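User: Please predict the structure of the protein below. I'd like the answer in C-alpha cell form so I can feed it into my own downstream comparison script.

Assistant: Understood. Taking the following sequence of 194 residues as input:
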Amino acid sequence: MSKFIQLSNRTSDMKSNLNVARKQGRIPAVLYGIGKDTLSLEVNEKELMEVLRTNPRAILQGKLTDGTTVPVVVQNIQKQSMSGKVLHIDFQHVNMSISMDSKVTIHFAGEAVGVKEGGVLQVEIYEVEVRCMPGNLPTSMEVDISSLAIGDQLLVSDLIFQDGIEVLTDPSTVMIQIKTVHEEEAAEPEVTPA
C-alpha cells in the first residue's frame, strides 16, 4: 500500500473544460465511499497509467489537495471505445478495518510437461475473487504449471492463499488445462471405377 497517487480538485465539470483537461494529461475522476462525501477530482494521466500497468487493483494512498492522505482503490474505468483512452475513473475509499471483496490476478509460471509432449494449454480464467482485510490483499499470485501433463487441469481449489483470505470463486472452477491435439487426417479421395 505504499503507492501514492495525487488526487487534485477538479476546477470545472463543464464538458469543454473536461476535454481540455484530458488534452493536458489530466483525467477526470470521482472519489466516493460509504459515509463520505463524493469529491470531483482529476488525476495525472501518466501517474494513473503507471498504477494501472503495475497493479490495477492495488490499494493506493490518495493524496488530496488539502494534504490529507486516504486509502483508495480503483473501482471503475471509463474508456473511449475505439482508442481505449481513459476518459474517467472512479476511486473508492477503503476502510482498512473492514474486509473487502476484490480480485487477484493469477500468473501461470513455467512450461507444462503436457505442452512439451504436444498438448495445448488452455487458460480458462486469469483471476479469482477473494474476501480479506485490505492490508492482506495480495497484488497477484504466481502458480507453477510445469508439472501439468496432457489431460491435467488446475482448479481454483488447488490455490493456496495465506490465512485470512477467503476465496469466493467456485472451488470447482477450472483455471487452466492441458488438452490433447486432435489432428484430423485428410480423407483420401475415393476412386470410383469408370
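That's the full C-alpha cell string. The longest strand covers residues 69-79.
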